[in-house]
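Table S2 (continued). Query chain:
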Amino acid sequence: MNLEGWAAFVLVVIFIYPLEVLLHELGHAIAALALTSGPVTIKMGDWHRDTYLFERRWGRLTLRWYRLPGWVGSYVGENIREVSPRNRILIALSGPLVSLVTAIAAYAAMFSLASGGFLWDVTQTIGNLALLSFLFTIIPMRYPALWGAYEGMRSDGATIVEQIRRMRQPAVSSEKPA
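Corresponding output:
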């Protein structure tokens, strides 16, 4: 990779990739707003800390930006446990789908740019990172310690698998036999 390529990579990772993470989390949040009645919060940055840099509210949606890095994000639906497994699948799937659409859009945009130029490098890096975001969130797993703030959390894919299993379980009746 040439110097221009490295500059594009650093620019994207530090400044632009947090926007892709925000889009991914907005995918979850919009689905949660449509499928639940409670408040929804998007947390960007190191949300394990008590204080955040700023907060912005729009109706039931709250965005909190914590200390850097901004490429760490999560969404929280206040009453997510009350949501049906089907709707939880839709909420979990919506974030990775936004990342996949972002990757496809970036790759499509590359066709209109001069190959090898700075903007082409930036667009390719956005596409690559969005595709990685899609893959690492759709694959069912618990994130390892090397993933920092995500350590021990389930991926969106793991949430989807868990909810499919819940849907396949027979319903338990609360009625006592006569």
